[in-house]
Write a structure and sequence with these properties.
70 residues; mainly alpha; 11% strand
Length: 70
């Protein structure tokens, strides 16, 4: 038990995605895939996992919205 603190292990690819999102909150999944050299499918799966883990949130519309890294 970590005294109620959840420890989430992220993969190297997820760390790369988070870094891009921190630097460019309005970046699209396809732009992330270009920047870090992963397939769009891989980026989308990892974004879903990051959302499920509560590490990121999407604010605003799908187009014109932005990422919040929590």
């Amino acid at each position: 038990d970590n005294n109620g603190v959840s420890v989430v292990n992220t993969t190297e690819n997820q760390e790369k995605i988070l870094k891009v999102m921190r630097n460019e909150p309005n970046v699209s999944a396809s732009k992330i895939s270009e920047k870090i050299g992963l397939s769009l499918r891989n980026v989308e799966v990892n974004i879903r996992k990051l959302k499920a883990a509560g590490l990121i949130e999407r604010k605003g519309a799908a187009r014109g919205g932005y990422w919040v890294v929590l």
